Amino acid sequence: MGINLKPIDVVDDITKEEFYEKYLKPRRPVVIKNMAKKWPAYQKWTMEYMKEVVGDVEVPLYDSSKADPSAPINASAAKMKFGDYIDLIQKEPTDLRIFLFDPIKYAPKLLEDYISPKELMGGFLDKYPNMFFGGKGSVTFLHFDIDMAHIFHTHFNGRKHILLFDYKWRERLYQIPYATYALEDYDIENPDFTQFPALDGVEGIECFLEHGDTLFMPTGWWHWMKYLDGSFSISLRAWDKSWAVKAHSLWNLTVQRKFDDIMKSNFKASYMEWKEKMAIKRAEIALKRGLPR
């Protein structure tokens, strides 16, 4: 049977009413082709332009190696000057990524280059976008965003392959307890169903982004991303109106994260081993019960 991947809905443009009824209300992803074509960034945001405006600041880099159980979440693997990194990803494949980078801190004029899609919904954190850069072949592990925001993810200067899974599949995806990511021992592109049987029958959505495409990811959706070219993206975040979602976000960011950090600090590898065993146990139970229904 395998993982059941359906192609994502793709539209050129969309009205507020259609967006609300088809995607925001049912919390379903969609790619909007023309949204970023209205932005100055659509023409301006080349690799050379980013080097010019951001400058030679040193940035943390991440790779796809398994997380160190004793390290805090989002601990970097290396550091490099931003301009050198941009040269690297234009020249050759690399596993190194820039993750959750805030270029506005170094280049506030970038704020003038994009427009939050307020004609579709409210709740945007306009001055706090996140940018992500990756070399050809680099992978962002399967996870959902800890703040539970809706995300408009726009890609530039290349292609990106994305797999998306509704939050309801979290146990079957082997979610690590007290974390927002999945067990890192399987390859979601080519999973071993004998070793990870709970993945068999999971339903998801497949997406390919090109320059200027915007992916709407509703709150809680799991996502795995692979850079098919050296390229970059910007994520604009918007809060869901639901107070339950807001409370879940606050819990994740405060109580759960603090507890996880304390346990990592005190118990290191033994704590991580317990979490991985629990992820497998919960996935097996969900599979036996036929979840999600």
Question: Would you mind describing this structure in some detail?
Answer:
It is a single chain. Helices cover 26% and strands 24% of the residues. The chain has 293 residues and is of the alpha+beta class. Strand 2, helix 1 (16-24) and strand 3 (30-32) form a beta-alpha-beta unit. The protein has a single domain (4-288), classed as Cupin (Jelly Rolls, Sandwich). It contains 5 helices and 14 strands. Helix 3 (47-54) packs antiparallel against helix 4. The strands form 3 sheets. Strands 2-3-12-9-14-7-6 form a 7-stranded mixed beta sheet. It has a 5-stranded mixed beta sheet with strand order 1-11-10-13-8, with no helix packed on it. Strands 4-5 form a two-stranded antiparallel sheet.
Which features would summarize this protein structure in a list?
Jelly Rolls; single chain; 293 residues; 5 helices; Cupin_8; 7-stranded mixed beta sheet; globular; 5-stranded mixed beta sheet; JmjC_dom; Cupin-like domain-containing protein
Chain-wise SSE layout:
Elements: E1 4-7, E2 9-11, H1 16-24, E3 30-32, H2 41-44, H3 47-54, E4 58-61, E5 78-81, H4 82-91, E6 97-101, E7 130-134, E8 139-143, E9 150-156, E10 160-165, E11 203-209, E12 214-217, E13 222-227, E14 231-238, H5 243-288
Parallel strand pairs: 1-11, 2-3
Antiparallel strand pairs: 3-12, 4-5, 6-7, 7-14, 8-13, 9-12, 9-14, 10-11, 10-13
What is the gist of this entry?
The protein contains 5 helices and 14 strands. With 293 residues, it is α+β, with helices and mostly antiparallel strands. It is globular, with a radius of gyration of 19 Å.
